[in-house]
Specification:
The chain is of the alpha/beta class and about 290 residues long. Helix content is about 55%, strand content about 5%. The longest helix is centred in the middle third of the chain and has 21 residues. The N terminus is likely disordered. It binds cobalamin (B12).
């Protein structure tokens, strides 16, 4: 069963086929069909001819199933586990506490295990929205309260970034399609929300180029002019880092660009309101890439 709205058949581009899922997780289409028919770990919906269509939730469930089977768990047992793994708010709070403690102790091996499990179990969006962003906000509150724990912040941010990279191994390689281009302003050192967006877009098969933190303005302008992205998201977390002249320069050169992140609020977005939420950014980026975000 799925809580996702049933898409129209014309929304097919928002869904993955069995072949795409097989490539993404490294399991043959035959095995995927067997997991569906034998154990009920299947697609979100079927097309008129019975074709299977999978969404992000099903993708992450099948990734988890595949990981368990690779660890030696029997397929029937693995299926039972993934089907029973509905994530509750209490579980998210528990995960957040564990991750917070591992970061405070700068226990990097524990952090890596916790983050890998979190991403596999919750999926990238819920992992970020329900667990990681709250832990980061807690760290920010402590900073504001005068408790300087930079080492813990650094450990957590680095570990999240590495875990996100591990999580998308197996996503399709870049194609000739025009990508979404994501970049931080030149003095901006808070790239995580943008990396999360890059990860989710990659999981959805939407071409994305993520330039990371502190991108020099001329690098961004040259890259954008060269690769002709469907959209540039220019990220700023704090008011000191929002680079309005750069936003104006990109727009002047005809690059489709939107300001993203809370740092832009005092300045304002140029071509429309500031994008400041993962879901709103996903909708905007997918729409520009010709996809409907489910
Ligand atoms: C981790 C961290 C760092 C790390 C970053 C490492 C890394 N690789 O990312 C390091 C240690 C480098 C760092 C440095 C600094 N930091 Co810092 N940092 C943070 C922290 C704890 C998390 C940042 C983060 O990823 N936030 C993401 C989420 C958790 O933030 P959020 O506010 O909930 O998200 C909002 C939006 O971003 C949006 N959103 C959430 N997800 C997504 C996704 C997408 C795609 C979109 C579009 C929107 C979106 O929704 C939320 C509602 O507005 C924040 C605390 C905080 N609350 O964010 C401080 C914080 C951002 N840092 C702060 C400061 C002051 C600094 C420093 C100046 C400190 C210093 N003196 O060195 C430097 C500045 C560096 C720079 N030039 O950019 C302040 C900024 C205050 C302000 N508004 O001016 C904060 C808020 C801490 C605080 N409470 O004071 N930091």
């Amino acid at each position: 069963m799925t809580t996702r709205p049933e898409p129209e058949v014309t929304d097919r581009a928002s869904w993955w086929t069995t072949g795409q899922i097989a490539t993404a997780i490294g399991v043959s289409p035959v095995v995927l069909r067997a997991w569906d028919s034998r154990y009920g770990v299947g697609p979100a919906r079927r097309g008129p001819g019975g074709q299977r269509f999978y969404g992000p939730r099903e993708l992450q469930r099948l990734r988890r199933m595949s990981a368990l089977v690779n660890q030696g768990v029997r397929a029937g047992t693995a299926a039972g586990l993934v089907l029973s793994e509905a994530v509750t708010p209490a579980q998210s709070r528990l995960r957040a506490d564990e991750i917070d403690q591992a970061a405070a102790a700068i226990d990097l091996p524990a952090l890596a295990v916790l983050l890998d499990e979190l991403l596999a179990g919750h999926g990238t969006i819920a992992a970020w929205v329900d667990v990681l962003a709250p832990v980061l906000r807690r760290q920010g509150e402590r900073w504001r309260a005068g408790e300087r724990a930079f080492a813990a912040e650094w450990a957590l941010a680095g570990a999240i970034s590495a875990a996100l990279q591990r999580h998308v191994v197996g996503a399709p390689p870049p194609s000739g399609e025009r990508p979404v281009l994501l970049a931080c302003c030149a003095t901006e050192r808070h790239p995580l929300p943008l990396q999360v967006l890059a990860t989710v877009l990659r999981e959805a098969g939407i071409p994305v180029v993520f330039l990371g933190e502190m991108v020099a303005p001329d690098v961004l302008v040259r890259t954008a002019v060269r690769i002709e992205p469907v959209l540039v998201l220019l990220w700023s977390m704090t008011p000191y880092t929002a680079d309005a002249p750069l936003l104006a320069e990109l727009a002047r050169r005809g690059v489709p660009v939107r300001a993203a992140g809370p740092g832009w609020y005092p300045v304002g977005g140029r071509n429309g309101p500031v994008l400041n939420g993962l879901r709103v950014a996903l909708r905007e980026a997918s729409a520009r890439a010709g996809r409907v975000w489910p």
